[in-house]
Amino acid sequence: MNCQDNECTVPLSIPACMIENFNFDAKSHLNVTFQNTPSPSFFAAIDPQGALQEVGWFLYPSMSFINWQTQWFQYKRNLTQQLQKPAHIVSVFQEQVMQGQTGVVVNISTAELKGFQHLELDMSLSCPGERDTTCGHWDHGISLFVCCNPNSTLCGMEIGRWISPFRRRVGRWITDISPLLPMIQNNQSDTCSFTMKTAPWAMPWIPSLNLRLYKTSESTAPSETFVLYQPGATFDKHYNSHFKPFNFIPPADVKKVVIFAVITGHGSDENGCGEFCVTSHHFSVNGHINNITFSEAGTPLGCANQVLTGVEPNEHGTWLYGRNGWCDGRNVFPWVIDITQQVSLNKHNQITYFGWFNGMDPNPKQNPGMISIYSYLVYYRT
After folding, report:
1. Is the pTM of this model over 0.85?
2. Residue 126 and residue 140: Cα distance in Å, rounded?
3. In what residue span(s) does the Peptide-N-glycosidase F N-terminal domain sit (predicted)?
4. Terminal CA-to-CA distance of the chain, rounded, Å?
5. What's the CATH fold of domain 56-381?
6. What are 77-134's pLDDT values in tens digits?
7. Regarding beta strands 232-234 and 335-338, do their DSSP bridges make them parallel or antiparallel, or are they unpaired?
8. Exposure letters 319-342 (e unless 16+ CB within 10 A, then b)
9. Distance between CA 57 and CA 53 in Å, rounded?
10. Could you write out the three-class secondary structure of the chain?
């Protein structure tokens, strides 16, 4: 069997097998049955630190799964080097059980959050027990919300997003959310409340969260944050009607303006939207279009090829396929757009947003999916 060009990315939907010729010589009927039978995994690995590690589930017999586990060790080595960079560490919570409607809720003093220009989320995700088999069976979104001023429109907004893996317990990721620093610095309260939660019906997970704060030599720093569009909408023909134009007048002392957005697609209509379909997302700033396309969605190895970016390998599920703006077992990468040159200071400006499927408004006929979006406008000053 052979393939050419785009044919090679299309998975076979017809099962096939080879049968010995002598079976056809028999006078009795021949029945062929297909099934997916998991095979026991007897593999283990020694990581760069000399520790014995599980290597997850080999979905089918292939050396690729060993390669992906090796790439994970390289990712962890790079992560360890990144974590050695000097930073002011604020421990939000360590190895707390996350389950149910409440999730994990912790109050942190704001005194040690001020005076920095750079902010990263350092999140680890484990699960009860000592083996992968005790972890949650399904992938779910995990969100981090913050509230430092109950009277602010920023109270309860999302500042970080991850997707849980299929039954693996080794994830750790650093996410740069520096543009959102004003959400935890510009308030009169003595505390900020951090809430991390996932689907309330999901099996328990054990997350840990540190804030990594830096002082930098950059001439500007984020000073003011505004909510643009949240929390998303059903991805049907009415999707774009949910997002109204955002008007703003940046003061003359603003030196830089950015849009910070986290966008993921979920669910499945007849086109695979929103999880497995390719969508594009567009912010128009005074007529200037800024767009991103999640072109890996639906591809056979779209997420397997991203292990070096933090995807937990060899999960016990369909982790290999590309998703719409995310991968199982990884943090969701923010989309940060510098729109400084598209903005006029001390004048009226307008931002609009729209999302497309196949270059046009979505219009599914059944079971529409949804797009989850949290986006912000951020001013930088000296």
Report:
1. yes
2. 14
3. 89-213
4. 62
5. Jelly Rolls (2.60.120)
6. 999 999 999 999 999 999 999 999 999 999 999 999 999 999 999 999 999 998 999 9
7. unpaired
8. bbbbbbbbbbbbbbbbbebebbeb
9. 13
10. CCCCHHHHHCCCCCCCCCCCHHHHCCCCCCCCCCCCCCCCCCCEEECCCCCEEECCCCCCCCCHHHHHHHHHHHHHHHHHHHHCCCCEEEEEECCCCECCCCCEEEEEECHHHCCCCEEEEEEEEECCCCCHHHCCCCCCEEEEEEECCCCCCCCCEEEEEEECCCCCCCEEEEEECHHHCHHHHCCCCCEEEEEEECCCCCCCEEEEEEEEEECCCCCCEEEEEEECCCCEEECCCCHHHHCCCEEECCCCCCCEEEEEEEEEEECECCCCCECCCCEEEEEEECCEEEEEECCCCCCCCCCHHHHHHCCCCCCCCCCCCCCCCCCCCEECCCEEEECHHHCCCCCCEEEEEEEEECCECCCCCCCCCEEEEEEEEEEEEC
Q: Which residue has the tokens 């966008």?
A: 263
151-166: burial string, b at 16+ Cβ within 10 Å, e else: ebebbebbbbbbbbbb
Structure tokens given for 289? 């279009």
Residues found in the chain: 382
Q: Which residue has the tokens 């955002």?
A: 246
